[in-house]
Request: fold
Amino acid sequence: MQIRRLSLAEGAAAARGTAVIIDVFRAFTCEPLMLHLGARRILLEGDPAAALAFRQTDDPDAILVGEVDEAPIEGFDLTNSPSLILARGRALFDGRTVIHRTTSGVTGALEALENCSEVLLASYPTAQATAAYIRARQPEVVSIVAMGIRREAPAPEDEACGDYIESLLGGRAYDHVAALTTILAHETAQKFLRGDKPYLPREDVTFCLQRDLFDWTLRAERRGDRVEASALVLPT
Reply:
């Protein structure tokens, strides 16, 4: 198995084989939580206007969750926040379709689908399950892509999560204490911890840095003219 480490928008475009698209703060922490709360489907959409149009023409009961450069989107139900998602709970999500739009993770996954045989969506809560799935499948090429800050600059939480997944695949050693020290000191975490923007809740950091909460990974797949993120049970 060849493991390639890539980053940012150019990394998503260059990914081949099985891609692991990482967005810890916050896209691919939000998605497993929404499925845990009973969401029926999660559809990935890069264009906010298209997400709004889907609800108007295809499914008036759909929930719109997302952000543009971290800011909430007018007309959406929720921004891209694990703690706000959990606060709304199963009463909002159970049995409903979610349209999810984010600047880094979702757009990176859509880009990677153009050239990869498989696209997995990863964060700390699904890291071990993601690695277990890859070990079971043994693809020839694995492209681990840390999406970073708005796809433009490296983010320590995404790079460290990539290190963790690589370590679980038999690669480099990983020290989670050292990773947390670096992550929490960086602006990508500090902008939450300052608590000065309601759409960046302090609690999001806690949820995003929890390792291995779920025993399934997520995979993005084309289904008709949509891309769906669904839970992937590990092979037995």
